[in-house]
Amino acid sequence: MAKLIDLLTFSGAVNDMVGCRGTYGFYVRKRPRRSHKDPTPKQLEARERLSMVVAFLKPLKEVIYDGFGDKRRTGGRTQAMNAATSHVLNHAVTGAYPELHIDPAEVRLSRGGLPGLVQAGAMRVGNTVVVNWSPDMTPESGFPDDLVRAVVYNPSERTVMTGMVSRETGTLTVNIADETPGSELLVYVCVSDRDGKVFANSQFLGRMTR
User: Fold this and answer.
1) What are the boundaries of each domain within the chain?
2) Topology annotation, domain 41-209
3) DSSP letter for each residue of 23-50
4) Opening angle at CA 83, ends 116 and 164, nearest 5
């Protein structure tokens, strides 16, 4: 049902026209019609790529909301997820349709100009993942009170475990005791300033088996 706003603007559908109010004011567009044609191979590939990427990123959404959500500007969670999805579609999808895959090393969970971690690495120790990096500070390596978030992602079970410490700590442990033995885990780190407003590009620290 359309809602009359004034004599020249309206919201909702009127016959084949739809009235919308967007960022730059009121506009009218034609109502989309469902196509009865079979999708082309390219359309099928595009749908599969998008579906695969969205499914991969969905469990990581809370991390992405922070890492891509520039708190100095308006935009919101949708914009953050769209930006992360776009990056994966353009940089991390490999293979030829229908054998498509996501390269986790090219996935980005945060972005920005803050320096990342130096000499960062991860290893499994019993029921934990231990992340280490150099805590030595230089003018180019960030600040001691920057925040480091480790993200351990089990893509087969869609579970995410995180931990957070300051950059000066140099080590961080994440508990993985609840994960299924034998499952693959992907390890990332995201670095932000102490207020969580400015981020570094996330870093992929590798795969490991629970």
Assistant:
1) 1-32, 41-209
2) Immunoglobulin-like (2.60.40)
3) TTEEEEEEPP----SPPPHHHHHHHHHH
4) 40
Strand, helix or coil for residue 158:
coil
Collapsed DSSP state (helix, strand, coil) of residue 130 = strand
User: pLDDT digit of tens for each residue in the chain (210 aa)?
Assistant: 444 455 455 455 555 666 666 655 666 666 666 767 888 888 889 999 999 999 999 999 999 999 998 655 546 888 999 999 999 999 999 999 989 999 999 999 999 999 999 999 999 999 999 999 999 888 788 899 999 999 999 999 999 999 999 999 999 999 999 999 999 999 999 999 999 999 999 999 999 999
Query: Closest Cα to residue 150, out of 94, 111, 109, 118?
Result: 109
